[in-house]
Amino acid sequence: MQIAAHVAIGILGASLVVWAATSAAITFVVPRGTPVALTRWVFTVMAFAFRGLALRRKRAASQDAVMSLYGPFALLLLPIVWLTITFVGFSFIIWGLGALSPHEAVLMSASSLFTLGSVSAHDLPTAAANAIEAGLGLGLVAILISYLPSIYSSYSRREGKVTGLEAQAGSPPFAGTLLYRLTMIERLENTEQLWHSWSEWFADIEETHTSVPALVFFRSPQSDRSWVTAAGAILDSASFVASSITSEKHPEAQLCIRSGYLSLRHIAGYFGLEFDANPKPDDPISVTREEFDKVFANLREAGAPMVDDQDAAWASFAGWRVNYDRPLLELASLTIAPPAPWSSDRAPIRRARLRRSRRG
Q1: CA-closest candidate to residue 232, choices 273, 172, 279
Q2: CA dist 131 to 124, 158, 260, Å?
Q3: Under a CB-based contact definition with an 8 Å cutoff, are residues 325 and 286 in contact?
Q4: pLDDT (tens digit per residue) in 120-144
Q5: To which H or E segment does residue 249 belong?
Q6: pTM
Q7: Are the C-beta atoms of 226 and 68 separated by less than 8 Å?
Q8: Angstrom distance (rounded) from CA 295 to CA 150
Q9: What is the DSSP string of 262-314?
Q10: Could you tell me the residue ranges of all domains in the chain?
């Protein structure tokens, strides 16, 4: 009976060790956005804490100051969780080998994990377990350290485009601002390179933000910038061009929209956010007809070559927007993105705050 108990404890410990090692490997080594339960739990628990603190602040800048710590802290917590599970797992394994008491097994596991060597093994199986634990502990920490340069390289590429957008679309970014400025410098009908470069940006963030989900929560250096609101401004601009500007069919703008909504959907899907993967063109969107008409009128007044049928333009714009409307708002809510027109200003979390403030 005692042997069976030791075997069961040893198997439980081995399962914990395999769980931690597999989670680390999939999170940082496997080059695909595979959801990992343990990684998601760490970010979820940290999210409750940081979002609770952030939402107690009324000013967007104060919220951003709190949330700016979320991504880095959650990322640094991952190896601590992995090491803790590994420590508990090898404590069970050493105890399951039957040579030591539970107290001695815990001390030996701690000594091996941190390569202290303060407790030595008295038999070959226990010594082998100590060696494996020491190597695995160092490996888990090394994985994070080795991938930090890659993580910050991806972050730098993302933020380079977000920062550059301020000169074109304002801060916070808005499609109406971007299109107006392009109209005034007579570049509205020559935007193929703009859409192409942002299509590449969307492809890049889809790969990096699902492979290393911590990047989703890394904030921009400036509190009024966000990769989510930048994505929204570009997609709305491309949708406006594809629906309302008289020229060719704007293939680059249409491809940018498709690249963008696929990217946002894949990132939102990784975090289990809800959205309709096959929306109908006439499904409701969060942008109102009045908001669309206001931008349409401003562009026409500025001299932009607008289509004659404004009703058809609105239907076309709504048909494009419906593809990314819900994922955009859900990601803005998930990251508590700073307020920006047509995106985070109508995200679920901000609508709830607005209702509470009105009742108060």
Answers
A1: 172
A2: 11, 41, 48
A3: yes
A4: 667 777 778 878 887 887 787 777 7
A5: none
A6: 0.81
A7: no
A8: 40
A9: HHHHHHHHHTT----SS--TTS--SS-HHHHHHHHHHHHHHT--B-S-HHHHH
A10: 2-144, 165-359
